[in-house]
Amino acid sequence: MSDFEDFEITQDILNEIDNIEINLLDKTLNLSSDDDEDKIQPLRSSYTRLRIASSSEGSDAEIGHAIQDLERISLSKWTDPKDNQRNIIAFTECCGMPFSVRTSMTNISPADFYELLVTDNLLQYIVKCTNAFAMTKITRTAEASKNARIRSWSETNLGEIKHFFSLILYMGLVKLPKIADYWSKDVIMGQHFPRTVMSRNRFELFLQMIHFSQDDDNNKSDRLHRIKQLARCEE
Question: In this protein, which residues make up the domain named PiggyBac transposable element-derived protein (predicted)?
Answer without folding.
Answer: 109-230
